[in-house]
């Protein structure tokens, strides 16, 4: 049970964290802060927080756990401010999709009395914002933690308890390892989805074509509806790795384009292999014990 | 009410057509033919057809409506054979995702007494095969019809009745127009999904990365599990258009790669535009009357 938790940033993730903590009665007091107009009040009204604070200082005061749930770009300044605003002993954690950059800021700005644990719940949906918050968002999701040699067991324990309350499954990774893997599994798919949306909606045929969209198109463009600010920050803080994955993806597409253009009947082998890989992954997802 | 309908090819689409026709009691007799071992029997057992025929000739005999639900590649030979096997007055239709090629075969092989109407229901799921057949697969889906100047109103009426029974929504298009639009909305997304699966599963980090997959990855690779044979045939029969769409997609991705590599903060504008396009499309989907 937490005494006082502060959630900074009350979008889909921050709001869902609050709802889940409340539903589990895991915090005596949940303070929230979001600079967006009316966002804190809305979060309080739907029960995601007990108190909407008008400043970072108010929210952070006396909190034992401070969760940063803003886009990565905002975290640098938040960490700088928390160095003086957070109580000694408070644990700071974040939920950003890129870890190396955030951790380097935390190590630069926070004193040793305010430990930081980098975290990343792999959860989301196309809609962003407090209106989409959902207490069950983290159930069974993978929640990465990226402790470093500076991370104390006590701080790690506090965040592990949070993950337990959320019903998520923890996975420990080195920060650069995390960023490389997530670039392939999450950032690359976002870019692929966005480029697809751009390509079809930018074509003169879009008005007619859009009426022929099926479930495949819907699924393939869902990620493109994600938060632009969050994804810009992800691209800025994980640029090298994402660029590398994109080069691989473009190369695979170019090969397919050449083979399709050449009426290559052996394309079926590529499609069969991708089908097998997808089915094997799905099988492993449905029976996670086999693979862990 | 149809007297005798023949479904040639009893996979996901053929099986689902049979189930839907039976559920609507729209056919007095449903004959089915599939060369796959045991497929016809399984289709009969789940109630997708009344009779599993051992040859195309048996299935086509006396049928007033013959539905080709095989991969496109098999249709050339089927149409050649149906020229002598189908009863005069029988209407032949198909469900292939590419129309120009199938229609040119139909016009080459079928006599005027056996009219052909090209059709394409935009429905599917990741699983293929008779085991995945579903009577509700076509409910509310868009079902394209591509009549030509050779198509009689009576033949068109017969297929329109089928679409009505399925609960689908008909959309009339010129064959090349259909193929161009579907290439962008369906074939390109499949290639994008397959290349993504290839890229991530082909990376040395795949074993670790696969454990970090979230809903985004799941959605973006779902299409890659589709039938390899069907998609090879689609690529072979719609090669030019798909190649053109792929070039546009690769170009969009390359631009994004360059901008991400350059830490371009104005990326947010691209992401915002794609988000708006996706949300507008979704809004139109949910309120179709506004757009039609």
List keywords for this structure.
alpha/beta; three-stranded mixed β-sheet; 292 residues; 6-phosphogluconate dehydrogenase C-terminal fold; Rossmann fold; homodimer; globular; six-stranded parallel β-sheet; 2 domains
What does this structure look like?
Chain A has 292 residues and is α/β, with parallel strands linked by helices. The first copy, chain A, folds into two domains: 2-173, Rossmann fold; 177-291, 6-phosphogluconate dehydrogenase C-terminal fold (Orthogonal Bundle). Chain A is 54% helix and 13% strand. Chain A contains 13 helices and nine strands. The first copy, chain A, has helices at residues 12-23, 39-45, 56-60, 72-85, 100-109, 153-166, 175-201, 206-209, 215-221, 228-237, 239-261, 267-286, 288-291; strands at 2-8, 27-33, 51-52, 65-68, 91-94, 116-117, 119-121, 142-145, 169-172. Chain A has a six-stranded parallel β-sheet with strand order 3-2-1-4-5-6, sandwiched between helices. The first copy, chain A, has a three-stranded mixed β-sheet with strand order 7-8-9, covered by helices on one side. In chain A, α4 (72-85) links the parallel β4 (65-68) and β5. In chain A, α4 packs parallel to α5 (100-109) and α7 crosses α11. The longest helix of chain A is centred in the middle third of the chain and has 27 residues, at 175-201. Chain A is globular and about 65 Å long. The two termini of chain A are 29 Å apart. The mean pLDDT of chain A is 95. The interface between A and B is large, with 95 and 95 residues.
